[in-house]
Structures are given as C-alpha cells and as structure tokens.
Design goal:
single chain; 5-stranded parallel sheet; Helicase, Ruva Protein, domain 3; alpha/beta; 21 helices; 17 strands; Rossmann fold; Ribosomal Protein S5, domain 2
Length: 495
C-alpha cells in the first residue's frame, strides 16, 4: 500500500470433491493467474499437487491483492495443507516471491518494506527470492533467506540445515557513492556554483534562469556530488521508495547514491506527484533525500507545478483515492531551470529576442507566485563569453565543496540536536536560532519595504542567511550573510 507492506495471510482448505482451484479475497488478474503458475511449479519440481478441490483465501478479504509476489506463499500453503511442508515454522515466517513454471523464484518489488513489516510484526525470518536478499537483509535480528527455487523453500521449512541466512555486511567501501561527474569540469559560473553550495548545505530549493547553453543542466546534474553521503537509515528509506515503485532495474542491495530525478516536462500529474489505482510514488518521492531537477520549468503543466506546493512545504505528498489515502515521503531538493523568455535569447547582445513583451510576460507567469515563494534561491546563469569558454580555468573539485557542505551540516545537526537542515526550520526555531542585532534588523526593514516581501519570503531569507553563516563558520547571522541571502531573491523582469 504505497511504500508500506501490508500482511496477507494465505489460508488453504482441501475439501473433498472434483478438482477446482478457487481463489477468494479480492485477487486481481495477476494474483488470479497464480493458479496456473503455482500448479505448474509444484508439479515440475516433482512435488504432489492435490487432485481434490482447493479453496485459497487471501485475508483480509476487503483489501484488493495485486501483483505476482503471492505465488510462493500460495504454493507453500497448498503444500502445507497436503502434508508436504511442515507447518511448524510458518507462523513465524514471512514469505514472498513470484514463481516461474519450473519453480524458479523471480525477484519482486518492495523487499525492504517486507523486511520492515516482518520486524514490526515480531516474525523471526523472511523468505524472498535470492536477488532480493541483499536489499531485505537490513536488520541483523531478522533471518533473511534468499532462495532460488521452490524446492529450496520446502527444504528450509522442513528443517534442512543446508541454507544459511543472508548476512548484511555494511562494508565502508560499498557505502561510498560514485559519480561520473564533478564540478571541476565546469568553467566559470562561480556565482551559480556558490548558490548551489548554499543550497546543498541548507537543503534549499533553487531556480536557475539563463539562456540555452549556459550550463544550467550541467550545474544541476553535479549537485548530488556535493550532498553529504546517505546514512544507513537514509539509504534504507531511499531504497524502500524505489523498490516499492519498481524502479530498481535489477539492482540489488541498498542505494547509497543520492537520487537525481529529471522528468521530462511532458510528464503527467501522476508521474510527478504519484498516483494510479494502487498509488505508486511519483518523481517528487523518488527524489526523496536527493534532487528533483525540472528543466524548462514553465513548460510543465500548471496543475503539476501547483501540486508541488505541498511537498515543498511539508516534505510529504498525499495521494487520495476513494478506498484510502496514501502518504509518500517527498523531502527532495527542487532545482528548477528556465530560459529568460520563450525564445531564450532575451538579454543576449549577440542575438535578438524574437518574443513579444506579452509572450515574455505570459511565459514567466506560468510559475505562480506562491510556488516561487517556496523556492529559496533565485539566480541567473549567464552564457559564457568566448574568452571565458576558451581560457577560463576549471572549477573547484566537488570534493572540496563537499567538505565545506558537510561542516555546515554538522553545525546544523549540533544546533537542532538531530540530522536536520536549515530549510526545514520551523517558525519557532527562527526566533531562537537566529538572533539579529540592531544593524541586521535595520537592514532587513529596508529590504522588506523596498521589495514588499511576504512573511514566507522573509523567513526564507533568514534560513538562507543562517546557512551562509554556517558555511562561514559563524555562530551569529550578520549583515553580510543577510545581504548575500537577499540577492538570491532578485527576480528577472519576466516575473
């Protein structure tokens, strides 16, 4: 259900009568087709399949069951009913897996969620396909068995000692995220890289405005390289979301790289926010604890952009359906990119803008004011001049920027008493953690009056200033930090 696993109890009765395989409990088509897969798998493994009537109940009966991962527990329940499998271990074991016709186990989605369910339910062991074992073995107290076929499952449940539980090994080298890109490959754009460093340090959302070819996408794709490594609980959370959404693409084990999601601007509302008859996480959730990059931001459907307002504010997204309401994590950093005008050439001395003032105004207005207020850093990315393109030195390595970001994050953790970032600071925290002197208050009074800032924007300026102070190693927010934060609220004339 969303990214959470819900237990399904398989009950099998073998009454007398002609052979029938009856399945009840709101199975969908994939679950209903398990009848043929289970029968073929049991027979092809050389095991006895009942010749009498079979009644299989999937409890609870008021919840629709979807997907093929119930194949294996249905087969085991049938084999336990006819005496082939000992029932002794079944009460303390969670079983899930898809069966091939020859009894081979195929990998499934949501293995991490299954492990969390088994742990919370007080079960002792979890049986999954071999490809899912590394992903599911996140709790040392839970015995996780990754098996290859139905016969191995039968042997294990009958007390065979040939199969040992899979052991999760937290290797330091395995936890090192590797990226193929680096900020040292970027020429110029020091102002933009500085802004992205602030964003990474405080978890702030970003909007870049610049002509085509100025490097907006290049800058955004390198942002995960300066984000701190995932902790073990964070890696489990990220893996859980991607696994439940069926986005692992055959990968095994935990995900240690920060997600970077870059959906096309034609993506639907459900693809971005999440949805479906059985809601799946959308891009805003798949980017949880990572980056959601929205290139050509004004080209997205207006309803999609407006739907981002709640996730950006609350770090969750709720998908409501008639049957239930499901909440997904959505603690992603939004990085938006757009041209200064529809044709992209406004402000370029070497090319003339061919868009009318009306079209330019309409283009900028596609991103609403309330959404812009939720984006902390607004800055321009100008196109490099020929001399800069040919002769500019390479940029600072991502590793050096990451070191400063991690020091700033450590200061925030010490201040909050937990792993938290300034962008998520509550209003009450602003009053206790940001104490301004008279000079700072006088400066902000002028800024608020001049730019007619809303209360939300005022708070966000304070949060960005707090992050800039953390990067500078300052315990107090000073006027210089506020002045730099204010410049990231400047907007192009199109807005």
């Amino acid at each position: 259900m969303g990214i959470d696993a819900q237990s399904v109890v398989i009950e099998v009765d073998l009454p007398s009568g002609e052979f029938q395989f009856i399945m009840v409990g709101l199975p969908d088509q994939a679950v209903g087709e398990a009848r043929e897969r289970v029968r073929a798998a049991i027979r092809n493994c050389g095991l006895d399949f009942p010749k009498s009537k079979i009644v299989c109940n999937l409890a609870p009966g008021d919840v629709r069951k979807e997907g093929p991962w119930l194949d294996l527990p249905i087969a085991i329940a049938i084999l336990a009913a006819n005496g082939t499998v000992s029932p002794e271990m079944l009460g303390t074991t969670l079983i899930a897996g898809e069966l091939s016709l020859d009894g081979t186990l195929r990998p499934i989605n949501g293995a991490v969620s299954l492990a969390l369910l088994a742990r919370s339910s007080g079960l002792q062991r979890l049986i999954v396909p071999a490809e899912n074992a590394a992903e599911a073995a996140v709790d040392p107290s839970l015995e996780v068995y990754g098996l290859s076929n139905l016969l191995e499952v039968v042997e294990l449940l009958n007390g065979s000692a040939f199969h040992a539980p899979f052991r999760f090994e937290e290797s330091p080298s395995a936890r090192l995220a590797t990226y193929e890109v680096d900020y040292k490959e970027v020429k110029g754009q020091s102002h933009a890289i500085r802004a992205l460093e602030i964003a990474a340090a405080g978890g702030h959302n970003v909007l870049m405005v610049g002509p085509p070819g100025s490097g907006k996408t290049m800058l955004a794709r390198r942002l995960p390289t300066i984000l701190p490594p995932l902790s073990l609980p964070e890696a489990i959370e990220v893996t859980r979301i991607h696994s439940a959404g069926g986005r692992r693409n055959g990968q095994s084990g935990l995900m240690w790289e920060r997600p970077f999601r870059a959906p096309h601007h034609s993506a639907s509302h459900a693809a971005i926010v999440g949805g479906g008859s059985n809601p799946k996480p959308g891009e805003v959730s798949l980017g949880h604890l990572g980056v959601l990059f929205m290139d050509e931001m004004p080209e997205y459907d207006r309803s999609v952009l407006e739907a981002l307002r709640q996730p950006l504010e609350d770090a969750i997204v709720t998908v409501a359906r008639v049957q239930n309401s499901i909440t997904f994590p959505a603690g992603t950093m939004l990085v938006g990119a757009m041209n200064p005008c529809p044709c992209g050439f406004k402000g370029l001395p070497e090319q003339n803008c061919v868009s009318t003032p009306t079209r330019c105004a309409s283009y900028g207005a596609r991103i609403s004011g309330p959404l812009l207020d939720r984006i902390d850093l607004h800055f321009e990315v100008p196109r490099l001049k020929p001399d800069e393109l040919l002769n500019a030195p390479t940029g600072e390595p991502s590793a050096a920027i990451l070191e400063r970001v991690m020091k700033a994050r450590d200061r925030q953790t010490a201040r909050f008493g937990k792993a938290e970032v300034n962008a998520k600071m509550a209003p009450k925290d602003l009053q206790t953690m940001i104490v301004l002197d008279d000079e700072c208050q006088a400066f902000l009074k002028v800024v608020v009056n001049r730019f007619n800032l809303s209360a939300r924007v005022y708070d966000r300026i304070l949060k960005v200033a707090r992050t800039i102070a953390d990067l500078a190693g300052s315990e107090e927010v000073r006027k210089a930090h506020l002045a730099e934060a204010v410049q990231y609220r400047e907007r192009t004339p199109n807005f």
